[in-house]
Amino acid sequence: MKFLKDILISKKKQLDILGTEIHKIAKPPSLLEGKRRGFMGNLKKGKVNIIAEIKKASPSMGIINKGLDIEKTAHAYDTYKSFISAVSVLTEPLYFKGAPEDIGLVKGNTSLPVLRKDFIFSEIQIYESFNLGADCVLLISSLLGTRKLKKLHDAALNLGMDALVEVHDARQLDKALAVGAKLIGINNRDLKKMKVDNSHINIILDNFNKKDLEDKVLVCESGVKDTDYIKELFDRGVYTFLIGSHFMASPDLEATLRNMESKLRAAGLIERYEDMIWIKICGITNEEDAGGACSLGADALGFILSTDSPRRISTARALEIIKAVRNGPFKADMVGVFVNEGAAKVAGDFKRLGLDYAQLSGDEDTDYIKDLKNTDDSIKIIKSIRIKDGREYGPGELNNMIKSYEGHIDLVLLDSYKKGMFGGTGHAFDWKAARSYNQEVPLILSGGLDSSNIKDAVKSVDPFGVDASSRLEAGPGKKDLGKVADLINALR
Question: Active-site positions?
Fold first, then answer.
């Protein structure tokens, strides 16, 4: 327990310093800016969610990872979103060798939500966590009275963050439930003896009625590294696991992550690759929107390079934005959108911009596409087909329309029809038209999509991917990143 006393003394000194700067930190919510990434919302029931931790040391192990590269580690975690749903960052300096500034380093290298893990005793630290960019804060039940725990819990929620309330026994779990906690971590480590007992969580769960916990997200903490153990708890309704030392002590983090992903997928505990929705944010006109969309988890960015649209940009401007993204920490497919352009123009822009896909959104037929492929057979093509609302598509009609393109295109995009427009209508077509699609070319659904209808659209059509643009805007050509976040969070 000496480490706790040392940390308490250290925190008191830090709080004294923060107290002198309260006018900078404790701003009213109306003056605080920045949308949270939705920590709890990213933890999905029915699949395993790993909260991957970043820490250099711990009281029980001492220095775990002396040469820890925080940015590289965050980027590695970002690569394995198939099972990593969030990142935990230790910011306590004395025993964990962390720093508050580490949160910013992590958020700059992953689109995943971030938990600030520290010893929080004061509301000032809640405001500080918000200003640092944390999406969630850790509140340790054993160190806080019920009244203080509720005050800090509610303060975090009022700022749009989530709060992970950590408990170590049944009494503390009762306390967490009493303050209204929905996100509860059960720690297998005895803080007094600093020993881990993996049966501890089962003992606690045995003392509670399942109904009392059914609307809660339970997180298993400490000692998690074995897939069989994860499967055992998964079958009891625990879907989320915090893993720190196992990852931090690995001599080859990439291999450890790859191995865990393989085992979890083999056990049916995470989504298959083919079940994960590909998300394209189209109509990008500036670096801020491009970087913001990527940081939120977009898989692809679309650039309108022809047609009369408020989202159209020049090839030179697109090149500047693409270079900025590719020089940053995030990976995304780059898609150029063309309407009835000459094949030589499309091929030239594809090569100059280093695009991943050329999206043909006009009246391009198979002869045109063959000509384009003859110009450059490396070009991957998305063909857009506009669906007229209210029109009844006969049995097999849509499939026949698309079948003619098979062997010549890589993806097909269904969009809504509006006379004189080639996309960006902001209008959703009747998805019933797409339900009969059964061709081999993967399908992208587009047209009037946002967070209000994206789940219904995906459930109705079961596409490979989705494409959204105009309904995610604050104004013509300018994205509202809050709306982008809402759409992506609705799917992930």
Answer: 53, 55, 117, 166, 187, 221-222
